[in-house]
């Protein structure tokens, strides 16, 4: 706020000085002009009287000659004063108008308003640095789930696009360089309600700077960063970045999983999708010879994962020296001769993975003319080319922005999901298929919600207190409908974490301990109903044993007294019976 005040003073210094000087000249001159009073005696205005007359004259061209009719000398000076003071006022008003059009002042006002909006956030929020293709998808998904977001973006046009979107929350957004520590501080990196920051710009070095600065400013903050370069990723890891996301590595890993374990792949897509979306069954990539066009970061990740699954690959690369491709066919893949040299007639699949959307579409169109039975994987680099890809029905479309946004969403909303998905990869495909069947039976074919529950007095006071009072609470109680204890909620317990150990798909008969952490997935209705059971002692007790407990504090006090009295009498009764 001080910066805005001093900026206004600097811009208005000359106009203010001009107005003050003109007023001073007019006032002093008017006191020197001789006049006569109503009795004909010589009279001069005092400084106060002159200030009063010049003040209303300069702004309204006068109310008359007060307190006495003026002499010719006074009228002549008043005429001069009118022009002397009105012109500086026009000059000052013009400067005021131009001041509010000043980019520096606009930026200062916007920055101050942004900082106030962030300071007034009283619920958990995430910072998203970069409102590009990936950032916009993530912000939309978080807003859809009712999670507050703060955005920093260096491009003003993108900030304008954000303000035009119809989000359910007002999203504070600032056009500023996120590499600057001041920007991160204004965005709330040290705010007590800030849960994490995602660096999602299209520049690895900017993401590195944001990740490093965020960790230095707040070491306890969860930091997610996009990195496509291995050296940058290693640098991020050395500073403790929690989640480093490479879209090409993630896609290559997913493609390999899709080849040998379609159930595991489908489970991963389902649990990292946007809740409510319908999940379509993916096509299974065939086993055989694959042609990969483009051996950049994307192509290398794909080739590595396909070869791990014992799939033969033939690489087409336009610049082998730049990409360090030792055994490949030189070309872009858009030419029929190059594809024929790679053996397109005998291939089962083709991957168009260059950094040009037009070239990728040209590659697959040419390849399909030569071999209509190809399994097609195409890389989509820019979301504004989406209409072009919609008219081309590829078997798999790789969208880096979509992959990163889904991974960030899973890690932000349910951090336990990351560990669960890692453990899922250690299970076989049949295990994944059985879990998918169970999920379909509970929530249908829509992407379920996922959430975590911690058994403690802060997040689930009813559960923690009943356990501490000696009443066993099983996992089954948390799966019951608080409105009807005989009905099950539409949810599935995915994982139990106890004392650093992870247990997949725990049984509902498992007795809970204080400190346990649970991962659930299910319908949004189940997610909203479960907190009643977690926090309400009366509801939880009714679910466990079907008994109603006293609701008022007096009845609870009396019940505890009676219970203690009965316990004290129980040993005496046994003794007397003998």
TrEMBL record:
Query: Which Gene3D superfamilies does the protein's record reference?
Result: 1.10.287.70, NAD(P)-binding Rossmann-like Domain
SUPFAM superfamilies in UniProt: NAD(P)-binding Rossmann-fold domains, Voltage-gated potassium channels
Q: Does the keyword Protein biosynthesis apply?
A: no
GO BP term, pick one: potassium ion transport
Record field: transmembrane: 12-33, 45-64, 76-94
Q: Which residues form the RCK N-terminal domain?
A: 123-245, 287-398
Which keywords does this Swiss-Prot/TrEMBL entry list?
Membrane, Transmembrane, Transmembrane helix
- The UniProt record lists the keyword Ubl conjugation: no
The organism's superkingdom is given as Bacteria
Name of this chain's protein: TrkA-N domain-containing protein
Its lineage reads: Bacteria, Pseudomonadati, Pseudomonadota, Betaproteobacteria, Nitrosomonadales
